[in-house]
Amino acid sequence: MNYLAHAYLSFHHPDILVGNMISDFIKGKKQFDYPPAVQKGIQLHRAIDTFTDLHPVTKEAKQFLHPAVGPYAGAFMDVVYDHFLALDVNEMTEQGWKAFSAEVYGQLLAQEPLLPEKFDRMLPHMISQDWLYHYRFADGIERSFRGVAHRAKYLGDSGPAFLLFKEHYSALQNLYRVFFPDVKKMAEFRLAELLNG
Fold first, then answer.
1. Cβ(139)–Cβ(170) under 8 Å?
2. DSSP track, 10-59
């Protein structure tokens, strides 16, 4: 799952949200430098990632993108899942997603002193380009695919992956519909464990 899903699966807990959003920028024992509630968000993020990577639907979905990006198919699928979540009216209306995105940006800005330097440098771009809301649009996904390709070693052009995404759009959407209720249920359960632990 990418930024939108991690934000959404923080279930409106501001400290959990911060940890969930910054987790990829925090390595090893660095997580213990953060307040306990933020640490729980980092742990939730890692539980979501592990669940997503091991889920049979993700393994099936990655095969559609594998011819273009090989072992990076999982990173691209994270973006694909965010796209279908942004369009999922069973979770929220379009206006609801717009308001949710603004809420997330506000909560991140309110806790900016806690943000790792790399994330903090990225945040103004996330806000100005409204990444979370724009996952619903093809150009937002295309831009996100370029970002994944840019960060990946030995991977240049994201264009072939985007063509495969469009070619297999319906199949990928159907797989998302099977997968997302599972990850949401797991995240709710894991968050309850973390908050009560």
1. no
2. TTT-HHHHHHHHHGGG--GGGGGGS-HHHHHHHHHHHHHHHHHHH-HHHH
For 148, the token pair is 């994944």
- The residues spanned by each domain of the chain are 3-196
Helix (H) or strand (E) holding 65: helix 56-69
Length of the chain: 197
Can you state the angle between helices 169-196 and 36-54, rounded to 10 degrees?
Answer: 140
Compute the half-sphere exposure of residue 6: CA atoms within 13 Å on the CB side of its CA.
27
Q: What does the pLDDT look like over 114-154, one tens digit per residue?
A: 999 999 999 999 999 999 999 999 988 999 999 888 877 77
CA dist 145 and 141 (Å) reads: 6
Report yes or no: 46 and 25 within 8 Å, Cβ to Cβ.
no
Query: Do 36 and 18 touch, CB atoms closer than 8 A?
Result: no
